[in-house]
Design brief:
There is one protein chain. The chain has helices at about 40-45, 95, 125-130, 140-160, 175-185, 200-205, 220-230, 245-250, 275-280, 295-305, 325-330; strands spanning about 1-5, 15, 30-35, 60-70, 80-85, 120-125, 130-135, 170, 190-195, 210-215, 235-240, 255-260, 285-290, 315-320, 340-345. It is an alpha/beta fold. Helix 4 crosses helix 5 (about 175-185) and helix 7 (about 220-230) runs parallel beside helix 8. The longest helix is centred in the middle third of the chain and has 21 residues, at about 140-160.
Length: about 350
């Protein structure tokens, strides 16, 4: 099969022929019809994820058809249209037994713990726990956008952030996760303030329901700008993952507000400064959010089916596999990632 491979962190990846994967007894091989290009893939390429072993094939946000099925898989067969969360759970550890597969103690992640979906085929573990059926009528490009960014945003806003109608929600960083969060919060009846450095990203945020937008390059203090507009957000998300956006998200909150950290926060020191004095004084909640378990997809999928949520509108670019290496490198640029870019490996 053809796949995107990198041999060294931060150096150009290339498309080459590699061996087709084989399914584990509990797993499947999926023919990848669409896979999202995500900033998390860029973090992996930069060497920010300790699970990656070189050489490596990135890609974790995918949809396609089941090609081969392991002997112990009971719920799926060749030809099924599927997607999958980026966290593949084991199904048997204490976290999984509690229904918290997104923090499975023995999780695997395509594109991180093993070769991923920037390829024509990808192997996925514990298929009966992790696969999600793609509804009839949903395109593979739309389904691929669910697995990381949209589902991650849905859990962060709805399940972890406990969004309520009428609340002010601040979204710091309007890439794929952030724009998904804007759309989801607005659909829940919240008033959304979108914060970004890119005029294009802010334009998309307005399109997807943001009531207010803050250009972080045009104000002295983005958090102060959010507070001026809202009196302090009830819920604020760092959807980018940077020390500045993390701090701004916490500083945006009103008393007893809720901060959800969604974007990854790699740091040379291993830690990121957080304004804990404000968290203590205002009794803020500081929450992490890590993907979404497969069994919790149905309410989100029903909102998509009903047209309340439109993840298809987030897909702003579709590219071939040969265009993926330079597109991956560009994910680290300022303002990169407005909307979702989808790779179609067979085009």
């Amino acid at each position: 099969m053809r796949a995107v491979v990198f041999e060294r962190y931060g150096e150009p990846a290339e498309v080459r022929e590699v061996a087709d994967p084989e399914p584990a007894e509990h797993g499947v091989v999926v023919r990848v019809e669409a896979t999202g290009l995500c900033r998390s893939d860029w973090h992996g390429w930069q060497g920010h994820d300790p699970d990656i072993t070189l050489p490596h094939v990135p890609g974790h946000e995918l949809a396609g058809t089941v090609e081969a099925v392991g002997a112990r898989v009971t719920g799926w067969r060749a030809g099924d249209r599927v997607t999958v969360p980026f966290v593949c759970a084991c199904g048997s550890c204490p976290a999984c037994a509690a229904g918290d597969q997104q923090v499975c103690e023995r999780q695997t992640q395509p594109g991180f713990t093993h070769w991923g979906s920037f390829a024509q085929y990808v192997a996925l573990d514990h298929a009966d726990v992790n696969l999600v059926a793609v509804p009839d009528g949903m395109s593979f490009a739309t389904a691929a956008s669910l697995g990381c960014r949209f589902a991650t945003a849905y859990r962060a806003v709805v399940q972890r952030g406990r969004v309520a109608a009428g609340e002010w929600v601040a979204v710091h960083g309007c890439g794929g996760v952030g724009l998904s969060a804007v759309m989801i919060a607005a659909a829940a009846g919240a008033r959304v303030v979108a914060v970004d450095v890119s005029p294009g990203a802010l334009d998309l945020a307005r399109r997807f329901g943001a009531a207010e937008c803050v250009d972080a390059t045009a104000v002295r203090d983005p958090a102060e700008a959010v507070r001026d507009l809202t009196g302090g957000a009830h819920l604020s998300l760092d959807a980018l993952g940077a020390p500045a956006t993390c701090a701004a998200s916490v500083d945006s909150l009103r008393r007893r507000g809720r901060h959800v950290q969604v974007g990854l926060l790699p740091s040379p020191t291993g830690t990121t400064p957080v304004p804990m004095a404000r968290a203590i004084a205002l009794e803020l909640e500081l929450l992490g959010s890590h993907g979404m378990a497969a069994h919790t997809y149905p309410p989100m999928l029903e909102l998509v089916r009903a047209g309340v949520l439109r993840p298809d509108l987030l897909v702003t670019s579709t590219i071939a596999l040969d265009a993926a290496p330079p597109a991956l490198a560009a994910m680290g640029g300022a303002g990169a990632g407005a909307g979702v870019t989808v790779i179609e490996p067979w085009s």
